[in-house]
Design a protein that fits this description.
7-stranded mixed sheet, 53 helices
Amino acid sequence: MRAVIVLPLLLLNIHHVTSAPKGVTASLEAKWSMTPFLLETSEFIGEDGNEKFWQFVDTVKELTVYKRGESVRSYYNLIIKKAGQFLTDLQVNLLKFALALRTCSPAIHASQQIAGDEPPPEACPAFVSIHGQHTCSTKDVKKLLRAAAGRPKPYLYKNDHTYPGVNKTDVPVVILYAEIGTKKFTSFHKILSEKAQEGTLVYVLRHFVADPKPQKMLLSGYGVELAIKSTEYKAVDDTKVKDSKTVINTEDEDNDEVQGFFFGTLKKSHPDLEEQLVELRKHLLESTNDMAPLKVWEMQDLSFQAAARIMSMPKFDALKLMRDLSQNFPSKARSLTRVAVKQEMRKEIEENQKHLSETIGVHPGDGELFINGLHIDLDTHNPFSILDILRGEARVLEGLHNLGIKGEHQGKLLRLPVNAVDDSYALDIRHPAIMWINDIENDPVYRNWPAGVQELLRATFPGVIRQIRRNFFNLVLFLDPVQEESVELVKLAELFYKHKIPLRIGFVFVVNTKDEIDGFSDAGVGFYRLLNYIADEYDLSQALMSMVSLYNKVDVGETLSVDTLSAYLKRKFPKANAERILGVESEYDDKRKDGALFYKKSGLSALPLALFNGVPLSPDEMDPEELETIILQRIMDTTTAFQRAVFMGQLTEGSDVVDYLMEQANVVPRMNPLILGTDQKYLDFTATPVVDDWEDTTMFSFLDTRDKTAVMAKRMKYFTNSDEDGMTTVTMWIAADLERASGRKLLLNALKHMQKSSPGVRVGVIDNPSGKPIEDNTVLYRAIWASFLTQKNKATAEFVQKLLKEESSQLLQQGTKIKDLLIQGMDVDAFEKKFNTLEVDFIRSQQLFCQDVLKLSPGERAVISNGRILGLFEEQEEFTVEDFHLLEKITLSGSAEKVKARVKQMGMKPKHASDLVMKVDALLSAAPKGEVRRDVHFIKDSHSMLHLSPRENEVFYDVVAIVDPLTREAQKMSSLLIVLSQVVNVRLQVFMNCRAKLSEMPLKSFYRFVLESDVTFLANDTVSAGPVARFMELPESPLLTLNMITPESWMVQAVRSPHDLDNIHLQEVSGVVTAEYELEHLLLEGHCFDLSTGQPPRGLQFTLGMSRDLLMYDTIVMANLGYFQLKANPGAWILRLREGRSEDIYQVVTHDGTDSPADAGDVRVVLNSFHSKIIKVRVQKKAEKINEDLLSETSESKGIWDSIASVWGTFEKSITGGGSKKDDGEKRKEDVLNIFSVASGHLYERFLRIMMLSVLRHTKTPVKFWFLKNYLSPSFKETISYMAESYGFQYELVQYKWPRWLHQQTEKQRIIWGYKILFLDVLFPLAVDKIIFVDADQIVRADLKELRDLDLEGAPYGYTPFCDSRREMEGYRFWKTGYWASHLGHRKYHISALYVVDLKKFRKIAAGDRLRGQYQALSQDPNSLSNLDQDLPNNMIHQVAIKSLPQEWLWCETWCDNVSKVKAKTIDLCNNPKTKEPKLMAAARIVPEWVEYDKEIKQLLRQVQEQGDPAKEKQTPTPSQHKKVDNLRDEL
């Protein structure tokens, strides 16, 4: 009631002045045109597999017909509906999110780019490329195919869509470039898909839109910040700007509450008072948007007060309020100071914080996000990568949901640690066939060594191998004595033994096993017998010595012969009887076969072979040259593992070390690469088919692979050996043709293993007959099945084992009936009745399953263990009982055991539980192995947690957010959580991780995160251009600067805005400040190392281009991490070493993360997503250039310049219309003044133009300006070309993205300072020898050529020291006291407004890398480097010398007296800490000529504006030229 009375009173007091709402909007568009939703949808579906992609394509063949008649919205809905046939509801929501984000757009544009490279024939809606020849007509396909074989095949990329036909390699490849859904596509698709199914060609589809829509699309997934600037020094330009006429809809702002009034509700109840209500709201807002600074005591509790305010709201509104408070904090701060905080909330937050810091290391104020326990680091993750995580999780979550696992159980199963596949499996070395030469624990040689395992923990010098009397390190060598390679290995073993390395050495000799062979006919057997004789007569160590001396008699390249053996025996042991030792009746032949048998059973690869503590060494490690180092390295590595075991108490004085080693999880009974390999395929059991009928084969054939699998799982019968609880943990399926001996053997081995093994295994069998299933070729299988259906488990198992024996098969072939083979205890009548009436249809279905799902041909065999397919055995390949044992062990140690324990808690029937274990195990093991899932627990959650419950009976994501509502993380996370809860069903917990006792404002910026959960449409059903960041109701008094916060690999630039985005002052603006940005480049980043030295090749240059233009962008490799970055956009790129010295000295050896084979010389990289692309390249010097240095003085000047000179010419003409006329590259290089400067904001750009003019007025040397492009305003970029033309200089815009690994600055000014100093070695081409940095606010009065030619006396750069002459400023000279005084010693503190850099020297001494290294160390402390660009070189003065320039090179009124002004060569407008005079006033007062320059430039800019658009047409280069200009910078 009160509000009703107050309202009219308030409304009376407001004067009617309706003004346009003020605000700021920012948008970001892609550089490429809008891509069709249908194509993006196909890419999204394609990520789930090639099969689905083509099914979808078939479904939407001619969908674009509807595009004309329907509105955009209904066409979009139609696409979603079609996609829904292939996606679950959850995936459809993710698809909508992906379309709103335009995630798949880069993939479409990449295809378009590849098509453009072909290039497409004129006026062609779709075309095919057949080995380099093109046609638009379906009629010409045959003709082009005929001669295709003679032409080279096209290059196919990893993500190309290949039609699933018959896989043949010798047929032509046809690439169709077309737009799915169009008529032309359909006609081509029909012909090509038929031919691909026949196997006459390979059909590849790439997206190609013949006439793309001209409109650009707006992107999302980034943040926009309006930071409040310090106005201590006024730095705003006074030039007026024409206001834009943009209008923003503000209706979404209405439903909020301002000072207790709910305006959404009021407008509904008083529609007649709409205008006055808008005014009232504005009035109230202006009074609350009070930006007066808060007192320190008012700030202290803000974080808790914000949390209290959020917790008082209903659930979903609370999230919106958190977004509102964090994103508009500066204007909400005052209202928060009045909120009371309950004591219990404070206490609960503190308890939870203590617990969090102990369990997961999260401290007050930290922001962390967990999705299903996966840690999402918001610094590295963006919405695109989060969508990928959501998609990956969806598969597992939906699987668990479909298997009936709900609620709490879901989280528990998800968090089970699935052991990643370990590639270092070990073999058990406690085997009698190993002949141990020594025993560290018992041999007298080692008796003086200490024996305690604690000795491992004693400190030693690094690299010293501890001598302890325990068998910690065991080397087993498998040798064939006759092989040439054995010689070196035996010598090496003796070397280890002689030097008393603590290594127990054993041999396994693999020699001929035939009984009749003797030592006179086979050198291997003779060697074995001789060795046994020596070991018996003397001892094992003597045997080792003899082996070595025997091998010394063998010449290089020869092998051991019987003659050598006999001669050796005669000479060394003259008394011995050769016949008795080597002959047929030898007494020394004991255990000869054991070695060969052990080798065969172990399943190891080719001889010779070594095991270190049971782990086999790879063939390339077996090189005797390398082996010694490798063994010593392994000893060092394993020592740390043993130290840990001793420290943790797992290994004690009483333990037997070898037993301890052999009880580890990675020890297996045999090595079978098929079982232990890392490439694993799993069945998907998660479907719930409508029918479970396999008797009707036709029906069965229509089911998709998942449904077929589910039917099989449902109908399968098992031989079981269950646990006492009736459950089995491992389920094996055997697919085989039981009419073949190999098939029977496989099943028999499985059953033998099942009986031998511990309980918990069951075996099912699938028939895969060699021919079409009929009664004759399925006799055995039908007998097994009849027995399953009618007999008890035990009887069935016995009967089947009898059936599978070879004698039974022979009897059956001779005409014996099945009923004659039945055994006692079987119910004969029931069996016969069933056997005689069993149809073969279900066996046809099984054969179909083998063919479609297991990809087996009829008659082939496979074993499936808990859904993991081990398939396609060769006809001769045997899968033994030992292999089954190994397979069971590996399956159990993966996740089966843990899954079983969880399933057991659910309490269900044993058969159902066993099925569930198999299905869940397959699902979890098939999921890609990510990082560890954390379990985030809170002690209490009633006052400090926001809870959002998921919708019942749907798949849900478990999301935990820990966040302080007043932090930069909260600004981003609040928006993200709102969108997340709209896209998927979430169980959300948000913990208020507040900081206490704040001493300054926690946030100094307004923020918007641009993200939408679905594509938005306008009222007329057309699609909206895309999402925009809107800032409405901003306070008008503060000065704001706009910052785009984009994903790591995006390079964006402002393309349109009349306003000064660096200094937004709403008081002086009427209407809305619009900022339009463009995603100019996606970065390709990488790390490059020299293979021979392991060091980054400093100064190495890479170029990036496309097949039609190989040199579009280039870069230089840094020494820090070998990092390089290249600008690119979606498409297929080729990376090469730059022509010139890079290519002369180096060659690319290998690379990964790329799209071409690792050893291909041309590195191909496809950019097809918004994600970061990071590659690794390894290079090596060419043999003849091994001593050359890239950055050496002598040879550089010519080679590199020549490679650039040709580029220069075109560059100048395109950009300056002429420029320097000299043609001699060498001279021109000498005679250009290179000036570098950075500026941001209209005022500094105004100063910059004046600085340029003052440089040009005082020199006759051609000048080239280099500007940092990242922060220039659109208006500066538009006008600079006119200025270059008028004044005859060259210019280039350079840009570099701050590398992700270098500590990030958040404040714009500090970022710009960083760019001034941190990247000097990589910003400019190697051809630029010297560069002079001149601050924008400087006026030059002398010829800078003087400065360029000044001798720097070996220093890489020269700076001017700060003046000392103005006495009254003494108190402000901070470098005279404290840290700086002691650090600099007698050196001076230098000013960074002007410096000259000798880039050659700078690169040679790696100054850039040193500066970045020091910056990385210092910048972690927010209080250091307060003037980053100046403090850093001064701090490094001892490591990177500074040449002090003469004082007259920089005069500035603040620090220098008036007397010295006369001699000043440049005047800098330094800030004056005493008077705080604004720059514009200072400029006019201090520098008389400044006003003249200013007038002149204003005159020029006026002319440019007056010439306006018609003239612009004439003068600006065409778009293609523009592109060239832009690329040219990068070419250099």
